Amino acid sequence: MEKLPKIALPIVVIAIIIIVVLSKSAVTIGSGEAGVLYKTFGGGVVTDEPPLEEGFHIVAPWNKVFVYEVRQQEKLEKMNVLSSNGLDIKLEASVWFQPKYNQLGKLHQEKSEQYIDRVLLPAIRSAARSVVGRYTPEQLYSSKRDAIQQEIFEETQKIVDDQYIQLNEVLVRDVTLPPTIKDAIERKLKQEQESLEYEFRLVTAQKEAEKVIIEAQGKADANRILSASLTDKILQDKGIEATVKLSESPNSKVIVIGSGDSGMPIILGNQ
């Protein structure tokens, strides 16, 4: 077997070194991610330049790249909070967020990759406790859910807005009250509903009664006006008119046998 030329060994060593260097220098940023560059000999975290975008990048092997997810993320948080009267309430909230893209370097430098646990979650807990403490259990259970959700969002946003975090939405998914309080509220709501239904029936019955009275009054007024307008002469003329029409009917056989007290003919018989 022939010996390798003396120059071959250094070439192999150099090639291995190049491969190692390239492997350490090549950085791939995935979809929905961005990279923060850390220069070991150049001032540390780069904060005055945009973060590394998606795709393939070559960096010096002595530098580092910290990869962050920059698309919207969701974090579900369960916590115990106190209502305005000191009752323990279990609250489940979902927060939608993402790091501010152009301030990713600042976020890494000041908050690190643990920014969710160090900043976001403490902020949502603090805001939830502050907001829920303004309401009674009954308000939390029924009418104020949307208002509480919006207030928690606004309170959290005030805290994280200057912490390089973009808050998109806070959703209150569940509010759990102590069983005894929940049962008492449900009984009260049921009683209020029954009371409203009873009042509705009373109002409906009253309106129906008023309608009947108005109709009866109208008929009475019409009869009084009609009675006042009728005279003996008019009644006699109407009687004669009706008698003539009856006598002209082909199904009637008319027999006149005198007259009544009013002078009207008396008609008997039919077919």
UniProtKB/TrEMBL annotation:
Matching InterPro entries: Band_7, Band_7/SPFH_dom_sf, Prohibitin
Band domain mapped to chain residues: 24-189
GO cellular component entries: membrane
Topology of the protein relative to the lipid bilayer: Single-pass membrane protein
Annotated TM spans: 7-27
Subcellular location field: Membrane
Pfam families recorded: Band_7
Keywords noted in UniProt: Membrane, Transmembrane, Transmembrane helix
SUPFAM superfamilies the record matches: Band 7/SPFH domain (SSF117892)
The protein, known as: Prohibitin family protein
